[in-house]
């Protein structure tokens, strides 16, 4: 396969059937793995749409700098797009985000400006607006929280892929609430196909943090959010999120991030409540950006193995051992 540039690989991510962790034998349960986008997350779709929309409308011109608040994935997506298209990129990121994300962004040529972690993404948004206001001719802010192109990306691509791959049989869709672009775009398109499809949103418990997700009662509500597009909203704790992500890796071989874990935790909960159907849950990114966090803590991985009776090579509680050196054996010619 030959493509013109890396952006041509965005989209058409796989739906993977959940075989071992599906609690309902009358339900088909799938995860849509957005880690297979070139930047490793669902945000690749959005950033391409936002930048190309701004170019068409004359809001983004050669010589301008793209400025955006991000928890990481949008920044990585923007870095890919800006490298291909030749724009400089400044990103505002809470200082609590993982080291891996910063390293990826630096490798892709983006400038990272750290905001106060305790203020979360709300603080990053405020700082981005403050910086841009001092030099409005220099900066273009895509503003994923208010940009209609965010939802449009999912309306035109993600939803179409889900409808096609399930052959129109989808009955339930589960996604996280962050910018809300995935939920808004997919919900709008799927309900055009079939208004009976149930749309389920997932947010973190109030006062807690799950990377990429927002609690709409305690944080800024995205301008693109429309509550009438979502049938139910569930909350998940950070512990639920990480535990579900670990078990997905250990049972299904799917290494995903904590927001994917939160979404899957709620998908399984909902699966137990319904009679059957076809459920698709979004997995926004992979676990590779969280290696330095508690997601991959050996003690917690061992705890998950024991709690769920998982058969794996370190069920003895020793995931890392040191081999004892032995003297080399002589081999006769």
Explain this structure.
- With 333 residues, the protein is α/β, with parallel strands linked by helices.
- It folds into two domains: 6-36 and 157-297 and 301-307, Rossmann fold (3-Layer(aba) Sandwich), CATH 3.40.50; 43-140, Rossmann fold.
- Helix content is 37%, strand content 16%.
- It contains nine helices and ten strands.
- It has helices at residues 43-57, 73-85, 99-107, 120-134, 148-165, 181-193, 238-252, 258-271, 298-307, and strands at residues 15-17, 27-33, 65-69, 88-94, 111-115, 139-140, 172-176, 198-204, 232-236, 277-283.
- It has a six-stranded mixed β-sheet with strand order 1-2-10-7-8-9, sandwiched between helices. It has a four-stranded parallel β-sheet with strand order 5-4-3-6.
- The relative contact order is 0.14.
- The model has no long low-confidence stretch (mean pLDDT 94).
């Amino acid at each position: 396969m030959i493509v013109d540039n890396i952006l041509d690989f965005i989209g058409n991510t796989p739906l993977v059937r959940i075989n071992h962790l599906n609690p309902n034998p009358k339900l088909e349960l799938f995860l849509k793995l957005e880690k297979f986008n070139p930047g490793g997350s669902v945000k690749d779709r959005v950033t391409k749409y936002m930048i190309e929309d701004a170019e068409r409308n004359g809001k983004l011109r050669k010589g301008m700098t793209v400025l955006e608040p991000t928890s990481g994935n949008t920044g990585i997506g923007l870095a890919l797009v800006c490298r291909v298209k030749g724009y400089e990129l400044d990103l505002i990121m809470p200082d609590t985000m993982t080291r891996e994300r910063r390293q990826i962004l630096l490798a892709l040529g983006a400038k990272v400006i750290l905001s106060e972690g305790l203020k979360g993404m709300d603080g990053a948004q405020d700082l981005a607006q403050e910086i841009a206001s001092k030099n409005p001719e220099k900066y273009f802010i895509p503003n994923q929280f208010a940009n209609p192109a965010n939802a449009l990306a999912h309306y035109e691509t993600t939803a179409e892929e889900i409808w096609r791959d399930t052959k129109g049989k989808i009955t339930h869709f589960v996604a996280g609430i962050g910018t809300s672009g995935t939920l808004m775009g997919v919900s709008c398109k799927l309900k055009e196909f079939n208004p009976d499809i149930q749309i389920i949103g997932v947010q973190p418990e109030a006062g807690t943090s799950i990377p990429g997700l927002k609690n709409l009662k305690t944080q800024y509500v995205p301008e693109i959010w429309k509550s009438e597009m979502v049938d139910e909203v569930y909350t998940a704790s950070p512990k639920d999120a990480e535990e579900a992500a670990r078990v997905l890796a250990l049972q299904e071989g799917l290494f995903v991030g904590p927001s994917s874990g939160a979404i899957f935790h709620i998908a399984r909960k909902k699966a137990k409540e319904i009679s059957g159907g076809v459920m698709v849950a979004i997995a926004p990114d992979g676990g590779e950006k969280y290696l330095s966090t508690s997601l991959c803590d050996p003690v917690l991985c061992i705890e998950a193995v024991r709690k769920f009776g998982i058969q794996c090579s370190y069920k003895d509680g020793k995931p890392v051992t040191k081999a004892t050196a032995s003297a080399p054996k002589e081999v006769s010619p």
